[in-house]
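tool_call: predict_structure(chain=1)
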Amino acid sequence: MGDRLDEIMILAKSRDVADRERLLIRLVDMCNGRPDDLRAPRVQDLLSQVFFYLVFQAEHDIRMRLAENIASSDWAPSGLINILAFDDIEIARPIIARSPILEDPDLIRIMVEATLEHQIEVARRRDISASVVEAILKAGRPEVLKALAENETARVSHDHLAELIQRSKDIEGLRSPLAEHAGLNAELASYLYTWVGVALRKSLASRFELDTKALDAALVVSVQQARAGEPRLQAMQPTESEEERRERQLVAKLDMSGQLRPSYLLKALKEKRLSLFVTALSALGRFEAPAVQKAVNASNAENLALACASVGIDRSVFSTMLELLRENNNGLPGSGEDNDRRAYQVFSKTSEKTAATLFRIAASKG
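tool_result:
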């Protein structure tokens, strides 16, 4: 140790660039050899001062070697690590990828303040947390989203994947990594099926045993709606009653004025106006009215749960709504402990976007 200290003192007095580089490397080697002694606050403060002084005078190549040498160290001063994480990308890359010193707030700050290349490295980092994933989704930069989709160690939730799949509608580069993602399940695969090409559809169908006939039928409906401007209300049926016509006009008026809300569904049921409930739910979800009516009259409440989840109804409201609906509709949709458990599970675990797609798929099965 004495010889090391003597060498370090000699190097510290030198103005030569090569000696500065050797000094940094010797300090790192010495610290790596005794990491347990370096975690005390006073030692950390001293290390920070020494390294900052050297780093600010160091050439690009020296900083790059330093970053590579301390990227995996758990003794490095946090301030130094954060400075290197914002340095040129060649210097920052190993720090962002491997440093155990970087915490979620540090990574999120990089997402907000650093360059696109730095953000991509954050998205590629192993085991990034849900909060970092959310920051990436919020930023929404296609290249960073693609890196996230390719990172199967990231803590991506069901809803995160659903949002990535929704983004794949406009970002083609997301589709292939999402189709191969380990977190994908049959529900999300059905959703992704809508946006991908023929080859990926075949892969998804084989991997998850998807009902391609129903999915293709739902896809045709979606294309037709898009070409028609996705009308939110269906044309008046020849057999509709005068009351139904007035209800349809009322819902249309509320919809066009932006006043049609999910809470209106509960209001309709409290007023014992079942057809108004069906019309309003059809408008809110952009569904075919017969499909909603079929869900209301079904032997179980699972499809109705999908329709309600897709328009943003609160879970506590759904329970009350289902009870009122059965009071107004001769006990339908069908009840029972198992039926209700499945319905509540579908409602609580399916995001709005996924629920809408699954409802249309179920409706297309006839």
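agent: The chain has a mean pLDDT of 83. Proceeding to next step.
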